[in-house]
Amino acid sequence: MHEWALAEGVISTILTVAKKKDAKEITEAEIKIGCLQQIDENIFTTAFRELVKHTPLEKTKIKLKNEEAYFKCRTCELEWNLTNTTNALGREESEAIHFIPELAHTFIRCPRCGSPDFAVTRGRGIWVEHIKILK
Amino acid sequence: MATINKRLKDIKRVIVVVGGKGGVGKSLIATTLSLVLSKRGHSVGLLDLDFHGPSCHTILDAKGVMPTEGEGIIPPEIHGIKLMSVVYYVGEKPLPLRGTEISNVFTELLAITKWGRTDYLIVDAPPGMGEEILDVIRLMKKGEFLIVTTPSNLALKTMSRLVKLLLEIRVPVLGIVENMRITKTKLTEELAKGLDIKYLGYVSFDYNLEGCISNPKKLLKTKFADNVKNILKVV
Question: Is residue A132 within a helix (H) or strand (E), and if so which, with residue range?
């Protein structure tokens, strides 16, 4: 259900940008979903459609695209992706990262040197990639 | 930002407990303040911002509880206090974070937590004047700062730097609490006067306090809690 909170944030971002651009209509929004948070796309879409009722986004088409999560170790500089890590994560760990992606630093370690000091270089969070508007 | 403002809109007052130096008693004062306000019938939230060393859950003896989900996250009530902390997700494991990562955790916590109607949100801030403090100033516009220090010269000097920063950026400062007082000294009071902020009073060093951690009922009966109640009258 965290998807509802994320949908709220995405809607607010789209509306703010559209207002700045003096948009009369927002026809399409492309939303990128970073895989680190393991967002349920169906719940997100349901939440989005429910929350945009009676708003200027009611008829806006949304496109969801995924981005694989990548990490870079700050100690040994190894780069790796989430797919190499998820098998080691239990349900509770995945859920914690789902709510707050940075909690990955508690549960994920560099596969080469074991360091918890790494950066999430791609695939964190959710963001609006672009919107199409009519003026 | 709009989501965060929405989450915080039904909170009447946000009191941020800061001190600059570690170990001056911020968490105990923040948690006891929350307990006292809750016992007086107020709706109280407590946000533990010390991601590296959360303590509020230990003081409140929060065990076997988790936030519930419902279009966001609803913090569980412990002894009448809505407590939010990363500890629900990381337990007693370490959470090593760098600067931007701390900011991200804070932003996520504010964006997902549904406090609902709340009279007081008490924020237990970590030592220093890094990301957490700067983010509170940036994102929690209602924040009023309660400064905690011990009468030690080392703590006072650090606290003084923090107060200067808060005054420079013109955020509301409620005043200074002198904690762990063993002997009578005018150092803190004089420093408060010099900084032109209120001296809210002192909390005596309570030798029995350690035995009351994880026992909120007992904690509320201590001399420490009585002193906190006196501070509250002035605030």
Answer: strand A126-134
Statement to judge: residues A51 and A12 lie in one domain: yes
- Looking at residue A54, which CATH number applies to its domain? 3.30.2320.50
Which one, of A62, A64, A55, lies nearest residue A19 by Cα?
Answer: A55
pLDDT one-digit tens code per residue, A27-78: 999 999 999 988 999 999 999 999 999 999 999 999 999 999 999 999 999 9
Q: Is A1 on the interface with B (CB under 8 A)?
A: yes
Tokens of B182: 């063993």
Q: Which residues constitute the domain of residue A102?
A: 70-122
Structural domain count of chain A: 2
Q: Which CATH number fits domain B2-232: 3.40.47.10, 3.40.50.300, 3.40.50.800, 3.90.550.10?
A: 3.40.50.300
**Is residue A102 within 8 angstroms of chain B, CB to CB?**
yes
Residue of A102, A115, A118, A126 to mutate when probing chain B, most B C-beta within 10 A: A102
Q: Closest-CA residue in chain A for B101?
A: A102
Scan for tokens 């007052």, then name that residue.
Answer: B13
Spatial separation of the C-alpha atoms in residues B86 and B49, rounded to whole Å: 8
Q: Judge if ipTM > 0.85.
A: yes
Average pLDDT over residues B63-73: 89
> How far is C-alpha B22 from the geometric centre of its chain's CA atoms?
13
What is the rounded CA–CA span in Å between residue A134 and residue A27? Answer: 7
Nearest CA in chain A to B107: A100
Q: Which residues of A touch B3 (CB under 8 A)?
A: 5, 8-9, 12
Cα distances (Å, whole numbers) of residue A119 to A35, A84, A85, A109:
15, 16, 14, 11
Residues of B in contact with A5 (CB under 8 A): 3, 71-73, 111-112
Q: What are the chain A neighbours of B8 within 8 Å (beta carbons)? A: none
Strands B199-204 and B81-84: unpaired
